[in-house]
TrEMBL record:
Residues 201-240 are annotated as: Disordered. It comes from Zobellella taiwanensis. GO terms for cellular component: cytosol. Pfam families: VWA_2 (PF13519). It comes from the Bacteria. The lineage of its organism: Bacteria, Pseudomonadati, Pseudomonadota, Gammaproteobacteria, Aeromonadales. This is VWFA domain-containing protein. InterPro entries: VWF_A, vWFA_dom_sf.
C-alpha cells in the first residue's frame, strides 16, 4: 500500500517550490487533478503552446483563460523561460482562489431573492470569474507592456533582457529595470546631453592630418562679444525679495514664531506642506563665455587623399563621489545609458570608467557588458571621494591600443576635485601625441569650473536643475 500511495502523490514532488503551497491549499477542485493540470500547463507554456483542456477547470473558465493567453501575447514570453511560465500559472491560481472565496457570499444573497441554490451558484461563479479574468487581463497587460519595453531597451544596448531566466536574481521585478526604462526616456528629452554625445567621436580626422586643437577651437568658437550672464532662480547667491516655499533655510523669522504657539504650530505644518511659508527669494548669476559653446564637428582628412573622416569609440569617465548624489547621479547614469545606446546603433566601442576615491575604479565595456553589471550600476548609489587621476590615466592607456586610437573622452563630474601637475602634463602629452579630444560635462555651478578646465579642452556646464526635476517627474 505504501508504494502505491507514494506513487499517487508523485505529481506533488514535481511542483516548483513557488507553486507548491498554492496548489496544495487551493480551494478549487481536488488535489491530484489540480496538481496534474498545473504541471501540464507549465509544460505547454514552456513550449509556447496553449495548455490542453483538463478536468480541473470548468469549460467556460478554461476557455476564457486560453483566450486571454492568446490575446495578451503571454505565450511568446513563456517559451523557454520557466520563470515567466510559473509567474503566469501563479497569477491564474491566485485569481481562481479569489473566485472560490468570493462566490459563496454572492450565491447566498441570490438565494435570499428566491433563486435556487444550484442556479445561484452558477450565476455567482460566472459573475466573479468574469471580474477576475478582467482584472487578470489588466495585470498581464501592464506586465507584458513592461517586458516589451525592456526588450526594446535591451536591444538598443546589445544586451539580452534575460526575462525570467534567473530565478534567484529577481530580474523580473527588479527596480533597476524600471530605472533602465525611465532614464532611457529621460535622457532623450534633454537636448543638451544629446548634442554632447552626438558630438563625441564624430568626423574625427587622423592626428597627423588634422590641424592643432587650439587653431580649430579659435576658428570654430564664436567671436568674443564681451561677458554675458545668465540668472538662475533658486541659487543662494543673491536675495531678490519675498516668495513662498517650504525651504526652512530661507524661511522668515515670523513664520518660526508659529512653532511656539500651542495651536498655531499645526498651521505652520500645513503651510509648509503647501509650500506657502514666507521665504526669501534668492537667485544666482552664472557667467557665460565662449568656452561653453561647442564647435561644430571637425572636417575629415585633407583634400586629395580620397578618404573620409572616421567615427571613433567613446570613453566616459564618470565621477561617483558623494557630492554627485541626487539629480547629478541620475544625469550621470542617463549619460551612460545613452552612450551605450549610441555605440550600439553606430557599432562603436564604448568604455565607461566609474571612479571614486584613490584606486576605486569600475570598468564597463559594451563589448563584454552583461545584464548584472548594468543593473548593479543602476542600483548603486554614489559615495566616497574623488580621484580623477585614476580614470584619466586608465583612459589614456586605453588610447594606446589600436582599436581605441580614435576615441574621445568625456569627463562627467561636479568639478570638486584636485588636478596635480603630473596629471595635467600627462593629459597634455596625450592630446599632442594621440590627438585625443577631452570633453567635460560639469554637473553643478560655474564656481568649480577651474578644475575641469585644467584637463578638458571644452567644458559644458549643465545646471538647469529645474528642467531635470520636471523630466524626473514625467
Amino acid at each position: 500500500m505504501a508504494p502505491a500511495y507514494t506513487a499517487g502523490l508523485a505529481p506533488l514532488s514535481e511542483l516548483p517550490d513557488s507553486l507548491f503551497s498554492l496548489v496544495v491549499t487551493h480551494p478549487l477542485g481536488s488535489l491530484l487533478p489540480r496538481a496534474n493540470q498545473v504541471l501540464a500547463m507549465l509544460r505547454e507554456l514552456g513550449k509556447g503552446r496553449l495548455p490542453s483542456p483538463g478536468g480541473w477547470l470548468g469549460t467556460s473558465t478554461e476557455r476564457r483563460i486560453r483566450q486571454l493567453l492568446v490575446r495578451s501575447s503571454a505565450l511568446e514570453y513563456c517559451k523557454d523561460t520557466p520563470d515567466v511560465a510559473r509567474a503566469i500559472v501563479q497569477d491564474v491560481l491566485l485569481v481562481l482562489e479569489q473566485v472560490e472565496l468570493a462566490w459563496p457570499g454572492t450565491a447566498g444573497l441570490l438565494c435570499q431573492q428566491g433563486i435556487t441554490p444550484e442556479r445561484a451558484e452558477r450565476r455567482a461563479r460566472a459573475r466573479h470569474t468574469r471580474r477576475a479574468i478582467n482584472k487578470l487581463a489588466e495585470q498581464w497587460q501592464q506586465r507584458i507592456s513592461l517586458w516589451q519595453a525592456l526588450d526594446d531597451v535591451a536591444e538598443e544596448f546589445g544586451i539580452a533582457p534575460a526575462i525570467g531566466t534567473d530565478k534567484d536574481s529577481g530580474h523580473l521585478r527588479d527596480r533597476a529595470w524600471f530605472d533602465l526604462i525611465r532614464l532611457s526616456r529621460w535622457v532623450a528629452d534633454i537636448r543638451q546631453l544629446q548634442k554632447l554625445l552626438k558630438l563625441m567621436g564624430q568626423q574625427r580626422p587622423d592626428p597627423e592630418q588634422s590641424a592643432s586643437l587650439s587653431q580649430l577651437q579659435q576658428m570654430m568658437s564664436p567671436r568674443d562679444n564681451g561677458p554675458r550672464e545668465r540668472r538662475l532662480p533658486g541659487i543662494p547667491m543673491e536675495t531678490q525679495g519675498i516668495t513662498r516655499s517650504d525651504n526652512l533655510s530661507r524661511m522668515l523669522p515670523l513664520e518660526a514664531a508659529l512653532l511656539g504657539h500651542p495651536s498655531l504650530h499645526m498651521l505652520w505644518h500645513a503651510r509648509r506642506a503647501e509650500q506657502s511659508l514666507l521665504s526669501y527669494a534668492v537667485a544666482g548669476v552664472m557667467p557665460i563665455d565662449a568656452g561653453n559653446d561647442w564647435p561644430l564637428p571637425r572636417a575629415g582628412k585633407g583634400e586629395g587623399h580620397g578618404k573620409g573622416s572616421q567615427q571613433g569609440p567613446l570613453i566616459l569617465c564618470l565621477d561617483t563621489s558623494a557630492s554627485m548624489h541626487g539629480l547629478a547621479e541620475q544625469v550621470s547614469k542617463a549619460m551612460v545609458l545613452q552612450a551605450l545606446r549610441l555605440a550600439k546603433q553606430q557599432q562603436r566601442g564604448c568604455m565607461v570608467y566609474l571612479f571614486g576615491g584613490a584606486g576605486e575604479l569600475l570598468v564597463l565595456d559594451n563589448q563584454t557588458l552583461t545584464l548584472p553589471e548594468l543593473l548593479d550600476m543602476l542600483r548603486g548609489s554614489f559615495s566616497g571621494g574623488t580621484d580623477v587621476s585614476t580614470p584619466l590615466t586608465a583612459a589614456l592607456t586605453r588610447l594606446q591600443q589600436q582599436e581605441w586610437r580614435q576615441a574621445d573622452i568625456l569627463l562627467v563630474s561636479d568639478g570638486e576635485f584636485e588636478v596635480s601637475r603630473e596629471l595635467q602634463a600627462q593629459v597634455e602629452h596625450g592630446k599632442e601625441a594621440l590627438g585625443v579630444r577631452l570633453f567635460g560635462l560639469q554637473l553643478g555651478y560655474a564656481t568649480a569650473l577651474h578644475a575641469m578646465r585644467k584637463v578638458c579642452d571644452l567644458v559644458h556646464l549643465f545646471s538647469d536643475w529645474r528642467s531635470l526635476e520636471q523630466a524626473a517627474r514625467a
